[in-house]
Amino acid sequence: MTELGNRLKEAREAKGMSLDDLQRVTKIQKRYLTGIEEGKYDMMPGKFYVRAFIKQYCEAVGLDPEEIFEQYKSDVPVVYNEDLPNQLSRVQSRKIVPSRDSKFIDLLPKILVGLFIIGTVVLIYVLIAKNVNTSQDKPKDDIGSETVNYGESKNSPLKNEKKGEEPAKKEQPEKQKEQKQVTKEPAIVKQELTSVSTSGKNSTYQLKNADKFTLKVSSSGSTWVNIKNGSGKSFYQGTLNRSQSQEINFTNETAAVLIIGNAADTDIFVNGEKLEYSISPVQTVTQNVTIQFAKAQ
User: Fold this and answer.
1) Bridge pairing between strands 222-229 and 234-241
2) Burial 142-175 (b: 16+ CB within 10 A, else e)
3) What CA–CA distance (Å, rounded) separates 213 from 223?
4) What's the whole-model pTM score?
């Protein structure tokens, strides 16, 4: 048993927890917990899981993971990039394509605004042309009515017919007013998910122009995740195997914080849009991702 294993076991026993209790809290299989205490890391599913499992063990028994890693760094195996050859090719291929899409998304609001302005100008031109044609036709109608009135008697039936035509003439300006009242459709604004800052294994993103915040975390292999809000409340903590996912509604929260044990096998979706890691998930396997959210008014 290593010094690290002894330290963790003493902390667990001080908490009055058995290995079965610790398994229920951390969702880590009992045989892996025993392997951590005895320093048998070769029985783990992969080297990159050793640090993730030890960190979760520390949090469950009230120890500071970073302090433990620093104090017993000689007991913790180092994660090498060659452990993840398949993930490397898959992640790199993912990161080549989205640059074009992001440029198109940036230009989309400008294109929509330009089309809206052109449509408005064309509509105003058509209305003005109709008004000009109507005003040119009015004098001819007035002259015709005046010549007829000279030959009419007081009881002429033509007079009554003219009275019946007047309401029809009054309806024309009302129709013109209805044509002028054109409802303007607001331009469609697409949500913005942008990277704000990165430092070490920590990265921060900002979600704008969205009236909801739905977070989905899915696994393409096997990964451990802890999903919390900005106040530190945990909504989910455990291991996701291949094709498993967790979806949480953060609409009423100001931020979502994700602690990821294997970023190379972890995909993050915000309102259906895939988040692109600003830190390489192959070079930095364990990452802390924060997504800030301000609901659109």
Assistant:
1) antiparallel
2) eeeeeeeeeeeeeeeeeeeeeeeeeeeeeeeeee
3) 23
4) 0.40
Integer Cα distance of 51 and 152 in angstroms? 106
- φ/ψ of 229, rounded to 5, equals -95, -175
Alpha helices in the chain (DSSP H): 3-14, 19-26, 30-38, 47-61, 65-71, 85-96, 98-150, 157-180
Question: Please, is 101 exposed, middle or buried when counting C-beta atoms within 10 Å of its C-beta (0-12, 13-18, 19+)?
Answer: exposed
CB-count exposure of residue 240 (10 Å: 0-12, 13-18, 19+): buried
What would the two tokens of residue 231 be? 């106040």
Is the pLDDT reported for residue 18 higher than 90?
yes
What's the pLDDT at 137?
61
Residue 29 contacts residue 23 (beta carbons within 8 Å): yes
- List domains and CATH numbers for the chain: 3-79 (1.10.260.40), 105-180 (no CATH), 191-293 (no CATH)
d(CA 289, CA 282): 15
Digit-coded pLDDT (tens) for 231-248: 999 999 999 999 999 999
Give the pLDDT confidence score for residue 133 in this predicted structure: 75
